[in-house]
Amino acid sequence: MSTIVGGTRERELQSLLKQKDAELKQANEELEERGKLLYKTKVAIEQLQQELTASRREEQAIREEANRVCEEQAAQLRQAEDQVRELEEQLQQANKQAKEAQAKAASLETELQQFKYQTQLEGNTAAQKLRDKDKRVASLEEELEGVKEQATGLEKMLKDTRARLVTLELDREETERLIRDLTSKNKQLTADKQELEHQLEVAKNLADAAKREAARAVQALEVSDKEKTAIEIDWSRKVDRLAAEQEMKIRDAEKKLRELDTAWQDKHDATERSWVSRMQEVEQHWEKRLRDGMTACERKFAEEVTDWERRIRETDAAWQGKVVELEQLWRTRLTEEQRAHDSDRAHLEAQLLAQRAELETAWSARLEDTRRSLETALEEATMRAASERATLEQSAALERTALEQAAASERAALEQAAATERAALERSTAKRLKEMEAAATRLAEEARGKWAAERAAAEEAWANRTAEVEAKYRKRLDEMKRKAAARELEIDTQWKERLEDVSRKAAAEREMLANSWNARLAAAQEEAAIRYRALQEELDSKVASISTRLADMAGKEGRREVQRGELARQLEDLQALHDAETKRRSELERALRDAAAMFKAELYDKQAELDAAYREARSLRQQLALQDVITSSPRLRSAAAAAEGAANLVTSADGSGVTHSPSRPFHTTFTTGNTHTAGSGAQSLAADLDAELSALRAARAEYQRSITATHDTRAGLYDRTEARADARSFSANNSPAVNKVRQDTRQPTRSPGSKAAKFINRMLLDEDTTAEPQFRSDSVSTTSTDPTFDAWRNRLSTRLSSALRKLEPSVR
Q1: Mean pLDDT over residues 237-244, rounded?
Q2: What mean pLDDT, rounded, does the chain reach?
Q3: How far apart are CA 423 and CA 420, in angstroms?
Q4: Could you tell me if 193 and 279 are in contact, meaning their C-beta atoms sit under 8 angstroms apart?
Q5: Between 20 and 30 A from 391 (CA), which of 76, 373, 506, 682?
């Protein structure tokens, strides 16, 4: 059985190991999934880098769009310059216009400086954003390194679990070896049991040899008796005496032989029982030891398994939580990066749109201002020219009138002087206009060249800045890739070193566990040997004590045989008593049933008589009512005698034709009349009915008293029977046979409320309830005068007294 238990246990351990291998495979698959997840995070980081490059491309596109917008604005500026040129050709005659143009050029220079400052600020903000993105990339790299370190720690824990599983396999092998040792010891115990059985067989053979010696002695005695019969007649008396002595000796020898035989048999049985019990105890002890060892090993293995399962679950839960946290962290960071990128892009687009709108509004405002200023200047110049012309015409008219009023002689001189002055004035004005036109064109060309140079310098600086930023980010990206490759190389080397270290530690721990298990096995074997020697000594001492107690047991067995015979005799007596009591009880029950049946029949007869009496009373009431009517009517008094005779005939007919059908009570009110004969007869009949009902109630009470007395006598009889059985019981241990007899004698008693008693009570109660409303007004307590009822009551009393006389022997 132990081998079967060991085999089942080994299969269970193998199934557990297979389950653990499957769990380890599942853990490896989960680790591979974690590695895939890490690879996905790496791919996500690369996608983020690609998105950064795409954002840079978008920034380049935005810059190109800004350049295109600037070129469009430059075209618009060229158009504006053409318009200014055209306006300047119209405003060649105004000196003030040149000064305003110079002031406008200065304002444009200041605006150009402001635009340069704004572009520089935008470049600084873009550089700051790029630096922030560099910092984010650096933090992502650090987090990636942390994730790789966590992965290394997880792999290390996996290696530790594998090493522990190897140690658990070694423990399983050790437990299997211990089970094999215990099975070998069990086989040795079975061999010892066989040797003890052989010794018992030898003892049996010795007993058989003793029996054969006794038989040979008996045969020798018989031969000697035959030889002694051939002696002479004169020695016959001596021979008889010797024969009697020999017979006595033979009887003594036979008695001793029987005693020896019984003693050897008892001793053999006792030794066999003791050896069987001892072997059972030894087997149970070693089986208990084996079960304890197996349960201890199973408990230890289960504890280790639960511990490792708990650790694996904790590590799995921890890593799942960490992976979830990392996923959430990367997801949040990715969303934050996307949000920041979108916000930056929207901000840049908004800035570009705002700048474009500002430039458009500024240039449109400037163009509008220049147009309005040029229009105002042109209007002012025209107005001034008109005013000057008017003044000149007026002065010329005055001078002409003055010259006309002067002398005619001076007219030619004045005309000549005027002509000379007009020519000089025209020459001076033409010269001044040419100088103003030359100055205005020179200033416009200088402003146009300065604007073009500054624009070319700004575009070149912007292109140089973007190229520097792109080169810087490319350089940083290459450096990050180199760092990532170096870090991966370093992590691989660290992994290899850690794996070697873990393998060395696992080998050392395996060797240490093997040494500890060997030491524990040696200690267990030594303890088992000591325990076996102690059990052997204890077995020898117990065998000696059992051999000493066999004689006492033989004496006790004899006394028990005597007690057993006494108990058997008592059992026979109690059985005879039980049979007699059962017979007496059956006769009593049969007599009571007969009495109840007779009583029921008589009660039915009395019910019929009561119904007839009720009908007679009803007829009497009708007669009394008729008599009252006759006496109260004067015309019917003459027919009173005839009516009374008819009533008597009806009454006699009702008395002769009695039926057993019940009638309903007829309630009437009796009045006193002149005829006292009918009233006195009715009252006497009612008194008889009341007396009969009271007699029936008394009979019912007497019957109930008799039933109660019968029940009391039964109970007393049962109590006395049990007391007698308890008094005759000599068994100190309360023998099962006597108990069985006691249980059989306790027959269920018939309660006073039997079917007959219940029927009588119910019938009398119905009679009381139906009779009381009829005769409550005129009931008179009188004595019974019915001879038939007295005879019935006497018969009932005689039957009950006979039943009680039958009960008297059982009571006595």
Answers
A1: 67
A2: 67
A3: 5
A4: yes
A5: 373
